[in-house]
Each structure stands twice: as structure tokens, then as C-alpha cells.
Amino acid sequence: MKAIALNKSFLDKDTFGKYIFALKENTGTEPMELTIEFETKTGIPYIYSVEIMNTGIVSEILQISGLGSEENHNVFTRKEGKIEYAVTPSEEVGNMVLGWIEKNPFSSLLTINNDMPVLTDENISK
User: Fold this and answer.
1) CB atoms within 10 A of CB 12
2) Could you give phi then psi for residue 65, rounded to 5 degrees?
3) Strands 73-79 and 45-53: what pairing?
4) Largest Cα–Cα distance in the chain?
5) Which residues of the chain have pLDDT under 70?
6) 3-state SS assignment for residue 51
7) Ramachandran category for residue 56: left, alpha or beta (phi over 0 → left; psi -120 to 50 → alpha)
């Protein structure tokens, strides 16, 4: 799971500086959760969290971290097949993303960004 989140360049071709990750123990019928805190080499701190079951991704969220001194800023939240963006992407990009995750319920918005640039869409800033 760490490789899925970290082996793709999804933040405007930024690369990772440092990161922290923790994996919650799988308790059978409960989703497995992975949360990664990372900072890009340009110094932008992020928190990425994903919950996965054997049927696919249950929820996924990317936030710009407030580092405990201010509120975190949502970039996107995905839950129960719905996606909320901080800034709504173009309708074309939004529909492509929904079609992609419907086709493959294990697709992360972070990993599909190389094929469909969700986070670099002209309608999305930071």
C-alpha cells in the first residue's frame, strides 16, 4: 500500500521529501486503513488516508496539513462512490474520474492522477 501511494508523482511532478506512515491492524470485517503524512520537497505538508476492503477502496482523503497549528485543508474526499473536491474540476475530468473508479474500485485518486490529472486540472489549485 505504501508503494501505491508513494511511487507515483501526483503533485504537479513534485517528489517526496519525508513521510510518516502507519497501518491499522486488519480486524476482519473492518476496512484496513493506511494514513501517510508527507511533505513534498517544496515544503508542502500533506496527509493522505485510505480505507480498503476486499471489494475496493471504501474511503480516501487528501489534505494539506495545518501541522497542528491550523485546520487541515481538504484537497479531495472520496466516500461511498462520491468525490468532493476542494475546487470542483471540470465536468469532463470529474466524469472521467468517476468512470475510472467505477471500472476499478481499487483505483486511488492519487495513482490515477498520472493518467487523468485530477490534481493538476486547471480548475484545481493546490
Assistant:
1) 13
2) -75, 140
3) unpaired
4) 41
5) 1-28, 112-126
6) strand
7) left
